[in-house]
Amino acid sequence: MRMLGAAPCARTLAIVSADYQIQFEWGVQALRAHPADVVIVADADAGESGDALRAADAGLVLAATLETADEIAEIVLVEQTRLGRRASITIAAAGDAWPDGSLRVSVADTLVAGRVVDALADRGIDFHSPQAAVACAAAVTLRGATGHLVRAERATREVAATA
Predict the structure, then answer these.
(1) How many helices (H) and strands (E) does the chain have?
(2) Which of 19, 112, 113, 120 has a CA between 20 and 30 Å from the CA of residue 141?
(3) Alpha carbon distances (Å) from 107 to 7, 72, 91
(4) For the chain, where are the E strands, in sequence order?
């Protein structure tokens, strides 16, 4: 029995993940990890944490909220048609900041990203990374509770900020 070392496995995963049309990552690191034709900033509250992402160097940068997922997907479909090939898409979730300035993951931004992935899939753009698939599954499964979850997360963070 031959044991595979970490390097060949990691190399294989890198090759496979590079082929996904839709990538989902957090913060500005998403832009470095996955340069793309289209960058979609998932930012539920369109806050300042997404400013650096919205200034991304890409052919097309779109800001998504829970309400705009379908509109964003339509724009991406038009852009892909214009390019005449499969467009590379990075969904970069803005998140929030911890007091030390490090990235704090946001449930609301995950749900925004998931809604966008779902809307893209409805239009046939559905070759997405595992991270994008999980965000999509969360958004679809929790569709009826999304508003409550976003409000609850916001309230929790406001209380934490005043403590």
Answers:
(1) 7, 6
(2) 19
(3) 33, 20, 15
(4) 22-26, 38-42, 60-64, 89-93, 96-97, 103-104
Report the chain's C-alpha Rg in angstroms: 17
Structure tokens at 142: 């929790």
CA pair distance 29, 53, nearest whole angstrom: 10
CA 31 to chain centre: 11
What's the pTM? 0.82
Give me the residue spans of the domains in the chain.
12-162
- Cα angle, residue 40 at apex, residues 27 and 22 outer, rounded to 5°: 95
CA–CA distance, 159 with 163 (Å, rounded to integer): 6
Q: What are phi and psi of 41, to 5 degrees?
A: -90, 115
- The pLDDT score that the predictor gives to residue 8 is 40
